[in-house]
Amino acid sequence: MSVQLYDTHSRSVQALPSESDHPLRFYCCGPTVYGPAHIGNFRTFLIQDTLRRVLEVDGYTVKHVRNITDVDDKTIRRSQEEGLPLNKFTAKWTDKFHADCTALNMLPPSVEPSAVDHIPQQIALVEQLVAKGHAYATEDGSVYFRVSSFDNYGSLSKLKQRELQTQNENSAGELNDADEYDRESVTDFALWKSRKPEDGDNYWQSPWGEGRPGWHLECSAMVDSAFEGETIDLHGGGIDLCFPHHENEIAQSECAHGHAFCNHWFHSAHLMVEGAKMSKSLGNLYTLDDLREKGFSPMVVRYTLIAGSYRQQLNFTFDGLHASQSALLKLERFAESLLAVTGEDKAAMPNYTSKDAPADFGRLAKAWDALRNNLNTAACLGAIFGVIGSNPAASLDADGARELLKAFGSLLYALGINLFTAEETKVDAPENILAMAQQRWDAKQAKDWAKADELRDALLAEGWVVKDRKDGFDLEAQ
User: pTM to 2 decimals?
Assistant: First the structure.
């Protein structure tokens, strides 16, 4: 049985092809590099990374392509504001994105094309569309795609032609400011944008004059380049990209090449923060660095962002981060209990964390089946903790513990979770917490047990656990 995954186009769970003469072709819309990616961006990228890992554990060979958008309205505007050449500006934020990906234990894509590097391919694609009557140039040297020329437009997002009054709002009901348009109510979208004074030196020569590509065009050109013009198996992105971005990719590619663009569409739902929509005005556009400064390791962030269903909105909370810390500790204690039976310590755990899946997942079969059935990470984790609760180490011999560790390790690889990274999670407690912990220690030394217990409970309520040593105490965020 193949891995099953919900397909946005058919609105149903479909099997991904498991046997083919080529790797599974998986394209993901990557970051626009004009600043640090926030946790909403990373939820989508982490879900895609988890799916790729599941496929690899299941035996698939995956060609994973994730692009870098290094030219659009935002990158040009921000680079101009900072007085930097576009390439230096975007290189800085591309490097930051890569560093965050590494910290979050994300696999690097097989290919990572950039929009700027594919300007010639984008121009050639526009020329094809103009020649076939699917696009037209305007007097100012811009080129637009003629939506009315593509009868299948709207099939992915299920928007009917009469509803396509504007390209200014995306499928999540948000302002589509990724590529800004000069006209309000128009169904046609920009393929090539004529040079404007505010673009500065960021323009290229084309048959229509100086200008730059529209935002939607780049992915079609990069898919063509990475997959040699073939139909791709799987395309991922956030649900906000379904319309207009992915709808426009389909239109451009299918009109240019005359065959299906993609067989399966994979979209991730939005992220809420403490029950509110993410926005600059609310100050909740958290980055990985923001959360690290608050004492949460990248592994805790990863666990939190992948633990819920990718098709449902995730409400990201600090209580949830604390719960993830506790969950990771339970996973570590489980691993330690099995390693103790084998006579090994935690240094041996990476030997078990592998994409080389065992023939039989045994007690963890339900957890593995959950991942293969529409990437149900919540059910997977629930099944793992169900096994942990049964304390299997108490009844296993060394060989049995090793077999269970192999299955557990493959699940950890699929989820992208590295255990025993406690050094990353150590934080400096706030002064009021340190003072409270010291008061508890002093109460214990004075044998005032009631006060010590009261202060311990107060620390727990603040999210801190006190661990006593012979000569003092340690504080851990819970």
Answer: 0.86
